[in-house]
Amino acid sequence: MSPTIFALSSGAGIAGVAVIRASGPGVLGAIAALHLGALPPRTARLVRVIHPATGELIDTALALHFPAPQSYTGEDVLELHVHGGRAVIVAVLDALSKIEGCRLAEAGEFTRRAFHNGKLDLTQAEGLADLIAAETEAQRKQALRDTNKTLRDIYDVWRDQLVTAMALMEASLDFSDEADVAADAVLHARTVVTKLSSEIAIHLNDKRRGEILRDGFKVVIAGPPNAGKSSLLNALARRDVAIVSPEPGTTRDVVEARLDLGGYPVIVSDTAGIRSDPSGAIEAEGIRRSIARSAEANLVIWLIDASDPVIAAPRELLDQGAEVLPVLNKIDLGLAPAIPHAAAVSVRTGDGLPALLNLIGRRAAECFEPGGAPLITTARQRALVEAARTGLEAFLGGSPEQPELRAEDLRQAAQSLGRITGRVDVEDVLDQVFGAFCIGK
Questions:
Q1: Contact criterion met (CB below 8 Å) for 107 and 439
Q2: pTM for the full model?
Q3: Which of 28, 297, 383, 387 could make an SS bond with 416 (beta carbons 3.0 to 4.6 A apart)?
Q4: How far, CA to CA in Å, does 50 sit from each of 18, 35, 39, 57?
Q5: Whole-number Å distance between alpha carbons of 284 and 17
Q6: Neighbours of 390 (CB within 10 A)
Q7: What are the tens digits of pLDDT across the range 346-393?
Q8: Angle at 146 between CA 143 and CA 150, to 5 degrees
Q9: What are the backbone angles phi and psi of residue 374, rounded to the nearest 5°?
Q10: How far is residue 232 from each of residues 94, 220, 352, measured CA to CA in Å?
Q11: Per-residue DSSP letter, 331
């Protein structure tokens, strides 16, 4: 029998109410040990929580019992809504630890039990983790789509089509002595796989929009020393994120700020000034990191000092492949050169900053198509979808004269699709999926 687990499920820190959750076969015993009295299913009751070892009153709380299987985990679940002071929380957790068969939950263990009990699949679990971590409206909507089974439905349909193709290949093997039957089965299987491979290719050709939305649209501020990069970052973030100094080369490492622009998460990074003759090894390393971070960016702002313009971005920056947006700073000095397609700002006066923020927000929005088909959101999902397509391509490119090998290609593809939702062979990916959860989730 599995142990009964418990944990604080609400946020840490002082609050009006804290939620402590327990799940497992020992919940009824815990209710009795804490002297909570009779708890009608899914009904909140005001109770006195008594320590099972000392008999001391711990707190007055609301208690709810969710009998299995109609609960989040599929097991018996107890929720205690206690006062949110640290001493109260510690005392309740200590009381639960004194009950035989109860132990503190590990990270993600409640959701892991929900998965094992068929309450949700792995894409829903990942969506739930993203929903908890969502910082913007667009992230919330994407995570909610995943928790509502939209991705699972797509992958389940594909897997069912694969099973159909696998059955046809098995039929071709079973009736190998009847050439016409075997040939028809293989031809039908190839028709199914060709259509499915095309659908998966479209799904993969999404410019990683789902992962960008999940992780944030990355903007790098690059430029020569003293162009005002750190000041621009502080102005965009509306707080002092980076150290600002008239001394060239003040920024040696990458400094980040997270923004919410129109509901989209945007990560703006200030980088070391780029010049061809660094003064030493430390500055050279800072320049190397600036170029490396630009390679990961979705948009690079090349900041130009109007009083000392270095208009052209260096070739090593342009070769990274990211879109480069020229932005002219210090236009309040009245020395602005004419630069095609450049935005113009004055960090000192604030002129042009709202327009620049709107421009960055539009660039971020262009990465995502509102509505439409659900997007791949994690590297795990993408790797498995790519593995499935590799199996399908191997099937289509392999010799039909080797039906056993072609059947194995389909089996591997089906296994990859099944592992996305957790229908087959998932033990090796469970820790990766559930490790992102907090202890009480």
A1: yes
A2: 0.77
A3: 387
A4: 17, 6, 15, 5
A5: 52
A6: 14
A7: 998 999 999 999 999 988 888 776 556 778 989 999 999 999 999 999
A8: 145
A9: -60, 150
A10: 50, 11, 11
A11: G
